[in-house]
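Title: Comparing notes on inverse folding

I've been comparing how different people in this forum approach sequence design from structure. To keep things fair, I'm posting one structure and asking everyone to reply with a full sequence. Here's the target:
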C-alpha cells in the first residue's frame, strides 16, 4: 500500500523543475516575446489604420471683408466675415454638404447601401463651437475619421467646395429677393401717389363745381333783386383763388352784387391749369420725382458685381489643406504592450508543454 502511495505523479508540476525549465528555455520565451513585439510593430507601421482628421475653421481676412464695403453701404444686404462663417457652419450643421462630399469621395457607389454610409459618416462628424471668452478656442473646430490623410484632405476640400457654393447661392438669392421687394415697394408707392394725385384733382373739381353752383345761385338772386353792386363791399379785389372779398357773415352773399359774383364765376371757369390751384400736388409731385429718380437698386447691382459674390473667387471661410491635423486612431502603446504580453505568454506555454513532454518521455 505504501509502495502505491510513493509512486511519482507525472501529471503534477514540480516547482523546482519548472524554475529550472524556465531558465533552460528562457530563449524560447524571449524569442516568442520578440516575435510578438515584431508583429505589434508591423501592425502599427502598416499604413492602413483610420486617421482622425481635425481642422480649425478660420474666417476670411479683413482685407477680403472690405471688398464688400460698397455693397454693405446699400440697404439690401450686409456681408461680413462673421456672417460668412455662420452661414457656412449652418450648412455643415444641416449635414447635406457633408453627405454630398462623402458620397463623392469616400463611399463606393457600387457598394452596399452607399447612401447609408455617407449619412453615417456625416453623422459622425463633430463640430465644436468656439469659446472666445476663455480664449482657448476662438474658432469653430471640426473633426472626423477617415481611412487616410489623402482621403481626409479630399473630403474636406469637397465639403468646403460644396458649402461655399451653397452659401454663395443663398446670399445671391437673398440679394435678388431684396431688390425685387424694393422694386415692388417702389412701384406700389408710385401707384399710391399717382392715385393720391388724381384724388386731389378730383376733390378740387368737386369743390369748384360746388362753388360754381353756389355762385350761380347767388348771382341769380342778385339779378332778381337788381343788385349789380353792393355798398357793403370794401372793394372788388380778388385773391389768388379768385373769390370775392369777405363780407359780414350775417349778410347774404348775393348782396355782393351780380357783377362781382359773375366775375368770380368767369375767372374760375377760365382757369387753364387747374393743377396750380391744388395745394397738395406740389408735395405729391415731389415724392413721385424722388421715387422715379431713385437709383439705389441700380447702384446696388453695380456694387454687387464688384464683390466676390458675383464671381468664381468667392470664399465663405479661409481654408488651407495644410491646416488639417491627423492622428492615428490606433493605440500604439496599448498594442505594443498587448503584443509583448501575448508573445511572453505564448513562449511560456510552449516551454511548459515542452517540459511536460520531456518528463513523460523520461518516465
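Reply #1:
Here's my take.
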Amino acid at each position: 500500500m505504501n509502495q502505491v502511495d510513493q509512486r511519482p505523479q507525472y501529471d503534477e508540476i514540480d516547482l523546482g523543475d519548472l524554475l529550472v525549465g524556465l531558465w533552460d528555455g528562457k530563449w524560447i520565451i524571449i524569442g516568442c516575446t520578440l516575435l510578438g513585439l515584431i508583429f505589434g510593430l508591423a501592425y502599427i507601421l502598416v499604413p492602413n489604420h483610420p486617421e482622425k482628421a481635425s481642422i480649425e475653421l478660420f474666417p476670411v481676412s479683413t482685407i477680403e471683408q472690405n471688398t464688400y464695403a460698397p455693397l454693405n453701404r446699400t440697404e439690401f444686404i450686409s456681408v461680413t466675415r462673421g456672417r460668412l462663417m455662420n452661414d457656412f457652419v449652418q450648412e455643415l450643421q444641416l449635414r447635406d454638404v457633408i453627405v454630398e462630399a462623402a458620397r463623392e469621395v469616400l463611399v463606393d457607389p457600387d457598394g452596399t447601401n452607399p447612401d447609408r454610409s455617407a449619412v453615417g459618416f456625416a453623422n459622425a462628424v463633430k463640430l465644436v463651437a468656439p469659446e472666445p471668452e476663455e480664449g482657448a478656442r476662438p474658432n469653430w473646430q471640426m473633426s472626423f475619421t477617415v481611412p487616410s490623410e489623402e482621403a481626409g484632405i479630399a473630403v474636406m476640400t469637397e465639403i468646403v467646395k460644396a458649402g461655399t457654393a451653397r452659401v454663395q447661392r443663398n446670399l445671391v438669392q437673398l440679394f435678388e429677393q431684396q431688390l425685387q421687394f424694393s422694386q415692388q415697394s417702389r412701384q406700389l408707392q408710385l401707384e399710391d401717389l399717382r392715385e393720391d394725385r388724381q384724388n386731389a384733382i378730383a376733390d378740387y373739381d368737386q369743390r369748384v363745381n360746388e362753388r360754381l353752383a353756389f355762385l350761380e345761385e347767388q348771382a341769380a338772386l342778385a339779378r332778381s333783386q337788381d343788385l349789380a353792386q353792393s355798398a357793403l363791399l370794401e372793394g372788388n379785389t380778388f385773391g389768388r383763388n379768385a373769390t370775392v372779398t369777405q363780407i359780414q357773415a350775417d349778410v347774404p352773399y348775393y348782396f355782393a352784387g351780380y357783377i362781382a359774383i359773375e366775375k368770380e364765376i368767369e375767372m374760375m371757369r377760365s382757369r387753364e391749369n387747374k393743377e396750380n390751384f391744388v395745394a397738395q400736388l406740389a408735395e405729391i409731385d415731389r415724392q413721385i420725382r424722388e421715387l422715379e429718380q431713385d437709383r439705389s437698386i441700380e447702384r446696388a447691382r453695380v456694387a454687387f458685381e464688384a464683390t466676390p459674390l458675383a464671381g468664381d473667387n468667392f470664399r465663405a471661410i479661409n481654408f488651407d489643406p495644410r491646416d488639417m491635423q491627423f492622428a492615428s486612431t490606433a493605440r500604439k502603446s496599448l498594442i505594443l504592450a498587448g503584443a509583448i504580453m501575448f508573445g511572453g505568454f505564448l513562449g511560456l506555454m510552449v516551454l511548459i508543454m515542452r517540459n511536460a513532454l520531456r518528463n513523460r518521455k523520461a518516465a
